[in-house]
Amino acid sequence: MTTKTEVTTEAPSADVVIQPKKKLKTSAMIASIAAEGQATKPAPFGHALVELAKARPEIVGMTADLGKYTDLHIFKEAFPDRYYQMGMAEQLLFGAAAGLAHEGFMPFATTYAVFASRRAYDFIHQTIAEENLDVKIAAALPGLTSGYGPSHQAAEDLALFRAMPNMTVIDPCDALETEQVVPAIAEHKGPVYMRLLRGKVPLVLDEYGYRFELGKAQMIRDGEDVLVISSGLLTMRSLEVAKALEADKVSVAVLHVPTIKPLDTATILREAGRSGRMVIVAENHTVIGGLGEAVAGALLREGVAPKFRHIGLPDEFLAAGALPTLHDRYGISAEAMATSIKSWL
Question: Which residues have C-beta within 8 Å of that of residue 226, sequence separation ≥ 6?
């Protein structure tokens, strides 16, 4: 099984860069999710946290042996005395974050999404969420953004954290939104689970004059034939699909839902209630328990019944391999999504 992906080198600053076109080894299991030639920004989370922390001395950075791989090393370089490396001990990471939050600090704790959602779930539940503490969890490799198989693929993280009381759940789309989410969640009182796109992150929403608002869904582009309700990486893919389907005279609207919990049901119901449009939920997550079922439940409870379809990861342990191959295989690449939409129409 072969495919082409893309490799880039680390940029020395937060400036926007354009990825060069290069051939990659097909064995690359963690590759850039940026399209060929797409603008990116390096480590938007790390740089945004540094800027915020300059004016917020209560902010501390914490990680479990993954500072370099969650872009928290940027924070370490700027504030070494406010950086805590807890080792490969995720339960300790979140227990200590709870303790610091009790003392008036605001920990930004980073790890991989699989470790936060599966290995340390009970510690987050009991020490952070139940106490409604001001801990912000930034979790890298969400959904299918790693090709290293089920041990590293957090396909069910949104379902788990949606079910946790007091927890706000956010799935940003791109570098711009990641930068905007960081100060927004610092203003929010209480625990937050944020999916983290790390490294060279695509820059997409700047084209649309986007501004993140906690708890709000936003129409990125309107359309008459199809309404795609999406979050995270799949909003970026949905926008690519919308542009591609223009050639087939298919008009696609994209409603971006970055805040999975609390869900902006009012906007979703208003847009899904417009007659004549198929409604498709697209998410980088298992079809069980994520955005799709949240939207479907909201529509059903309010008696809104459009033609409904769902793009998401299957209810199975996913394969290992090169990311572009896996995205095609599981139907979340732009090409696969476009094919599905045209077949449904």
Answer: 250, 251, 252, 253, 277, 278, 279, 280, 341, 345
